[in-house]
């Protein structure tokens, strides 16, 4: 959970609660790493993978809204800056 909490900049306890809810709802599988019992591995279930098209549409709509007033050059410049800082 540490790596995930760092990746999305959220508190570990928040991530743990969210993951447990996703497991309970059947969207995510959670299991201990066989080589390191301190580490948990997460994977999407079939039910979780079925949501991918929905998330793709939401993501496309958000990006379209963000970029709608940008020129092509401004979009390219923004993407370059975001890549430079690792986003």
TrEMBL record:
PROSITE patterns assigned: HTH_MARR_2
SUPFAM superfamilies in the cross-refs: Winged helix' DNA-binding domain (SSF46785)
Domain of life: Bacteria
Database matches in SMART domains: HTH_MARR (SM00347)
A GO term, aspect molecular function: DNA binding
Keyword Thylakoid: no
Domain HTH marR-type, first and last residues per copy: 1-87
Pfam family of the protein (one): HTH_27
Key words of the record: DNA-binding, Transcription, Transcription regulation
Name of the protein this chain belongs to: HTH marR-type domain-containing protein
Species whose genome carries this gene: Paenibacillus albidus
Lineage, highest ranks first: Bacteria, Bacillati, Bacillota, Bacilli, Bacillales
């Amino acid at each position: 959970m540490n790596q995930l909490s760092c990746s999305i900049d959220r508190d570990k306890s928040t991530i743990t609660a969210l993951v447990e809810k996703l497991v309970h709802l059947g969207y995510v599988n959670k299991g201990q790493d066989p080589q390191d019992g301190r580490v948990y591995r997460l994977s999407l279930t079939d039910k979780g993978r079925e949501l991918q098209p929905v998330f793709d549409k939401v993501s496309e709509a958000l990006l379209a809204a963000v970029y709608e007033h940008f020129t092509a050059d401004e979009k390219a410049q923004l993407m370059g800056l975001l890549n430079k800082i690792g986003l």
